[in-house]
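Now for a chain:

_____
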Amino acid sequence: MAIPDEDVARVRAATDLVALIGEQTALKRVGRRFVGLCPFHAEKTGSFSVNAEEGLYYCFGCQASGDAISFVRATEGVDFVEAVERLANRAGITIRYDDDRDRNEDRNRRRELLAAMTVAVDFYHERLLAQPDAGRARQYLRSRGYDGEVVRRFRLGYAPAGWDELVRALRLPGAVLREAGLAYENDRNRYQDSFRERVMFPIFDPGGQAIAFGGRVLPEALRSSEREPGPKYRNSPESAIYSKRRTLYGLNWAKSDIARAHEVVVCEGYTDVIGFHLAGVPRAVATCGTALTEDHFRLLAHFASRIVLCFDADAAGQAAAARLYQWERRHELELAVAALPVGSDPGELAQHDPASLAAAVENAQPFLGFRVDQALAAHDLHTPEGRSRAAEAALAAIAEHPNELVRDQYLIGVADRTRLDPNRLRELLVEVHSRPQPDPEVASAGPGQRADDREPSDGNRAAFGAVPPGRAGARMAEERPELRAGRDALLLALNQPDGARALLDEVLFVDPVQRNAYRALVDSAGLSEAIQRADPEAGDLIRRLAVSELPEELVVTGPYIELVRAACDRTLREIDAEARVAQQEGRSEDLATALVTGAWLRTELEALRDPLVGPGGDSGTEDAAKRLVAWLAQRHEEARDDGRRTSED
C-alpha cells in the first residue's frame, strides 16, 4: 500500500521537526539552526544539527541524517507508511491510500486492533479508579507503593471478575476482540473476556499506542482454594500489532531519558520498570514474556549506546554469553550488569531503598567483568586449591569473549587476584578457548522466575544455568551463529516439519553433521528411520534434538534468515576470491561475471540485514531469502556438475 506523494509532502510540511526531535534530546537555537547532543550515539559535545526550515537533521559525528519520517522510523522501529500515519495523526491530517485491496485490508485491520486496545485500556483504567469491585486491586497496588499518580501515569487498570463485562462494554466485533487477545469464543459460541479479576498493565509501542496487556492475578485469588485463577501472569497473544520479540515494556515512557543518558536499563518485569521510575531512574524497560533478543538490541541501538542488565545477581552471572557478545559488537553497544543484593528485585528496592537501586545502575560493571567477579567470589582465594578453581572458572567466562585484547586484560587481573603466573593462565586460556563452548540455549534473560510476579519460563531458566529436565541434551557445542542457527533450524524441522522443511535446503548447513542430519530427516518417513539412515554423529544429533524442548519464542524465520545470511557471506567471499584470481590471470570475462554476481549478492544481503531496505519489510526479507536459497542451490548444483565433468575428463 502506498500513500500519495502529495499527502506525504503535507505531513512533512505540517510536522514541527524541532518539537519532534526535542522529545528525544534537548535542542537550542544557534543562528538559523538548532543543535544538541545526537540521539543516535553517545557524545559529550553536540554535533547534531536540525534545519527547521527544510525539515532535515544531520549528525556530524555519526552521519545520521533524514527528515521527520526517517526520524520516526529510526526511533520507533516502524515502516515508512506507519511513520507517515503517526506523523499525520500528530498533525491532524487525514491521508489517503492508493488502491491495493490486500494491503489496505491489513492496514485497516491494524487500525481496528489499535482502536480496540485503546478503548480497552480506558475501560480497565476507569474500572480501577472508580468502581467498587476494584477495591482489592487498589489495595494491592497501594501495598506495592503505587499511589493514584502512578496508576494514572502507567495507565494501570483492573479486569473485573465477570465473564463478559469488557465484551459488553466495548460492543466491538468478536473477530476484532479475539485477534487483539481481549476475548475468546467459549463452548457456547459466545465471546467472553480473556482477562478477569486481574491488575492490568497495558503495553505500548515506542510511539505510545497500546498494543497488548499483561494481567496479574490478585494475591487473594492465588491463595484461595475455591478459585482457579490460572497463571499468575497472563499476557496478550502475539497479533498483527504485537510481537514479543520486538516489544519492550516501558520504552514509550523511557525513550526520552534513554536518549538523554545514552543508556537503557533492561530489567525483568512490569513492576521493576515502575520501580525504577519511582527511584528516579526513568530509563528502564522490560521484555514481555520472552528472552532478550537481537531484535531488542536492534531497537535499543536507536536510542542508547549502553545497555545495563538488571536481573538477579546470581542469575546474570551465570547467563550464557556468546550471543550477547555478538550482538554487543554487531550493534556497537556496551553491555553492563547492575548487581542487586541477592534475593532482591527493583520493585522491592524502589519501595524500601531507592537510593541503592539508582546506585546499582550507576556502578554497573562491564558484562565480562561482572561474570569474572562472580566466578572468583564463588571460591576461597585463601587456599591454593580455591585459587586454582577460581582461576579455572574465571577463564571459562573470559574464553567466551570474542576479542583477544579484552580477554588478555581480564586474564592479567585474574592472575593478580589468584597469585598465579599469567603465562601459565594464557596457556590454559588458549586451551579453554579452543574447546567447543556450551551452546547458550537462550541469549539472555527475559522475565525471571521470582515468586512474587513472574510467569515461569523454561527458556530463561536455561539462560541462567538452571536447565530444566529434558533440555540438558540440547546444550551443544555450537558457538558460531550459523551453527546455532543450524541447530535451531533442525529443532524446528523436527517439531514443525511442514513449515521448516519447506524453507530449508541442505546448502544452508555449513556443519557436515547438521547437513547429514537434515538430509536424513528429509529423506525419511519418520524419526526412527532418520536416526537409522544418518551416520553416527548425525544420528546422535537427531536424538538429542528429539528430546529437546522447542523454545516458545523460536520461529522458523529466525534461524532460516541467519543461515541464509551466513551461506551468502561464505559464497560472497568465494566470489571475491574468484574475481581476484581472474584478474591476476587476465580472464576478463570471468572477472566481469564475478563482479556482477558479487554486486547483486551484496544488494540482496542488504535486504536480509535490514528489513527496512527491502521493498516489503519483513516479507521482503523472506522473499529475498527464498531467492537467495534458490540461487545458492543452483550454484551448488552447477559446481557439483562441473566437478563431475572434471573427474570424467
Remarks:
- The radius of gyration is 27 Å.
- The longest strand covers residues 210-217.
- Residues 224-228, 313-320, 438-479, 612-617 have pLDDT under 50 and may be disordered.
- The chain has five domains: 5-91, 101-242, 248-434, 469-546, 557-648.
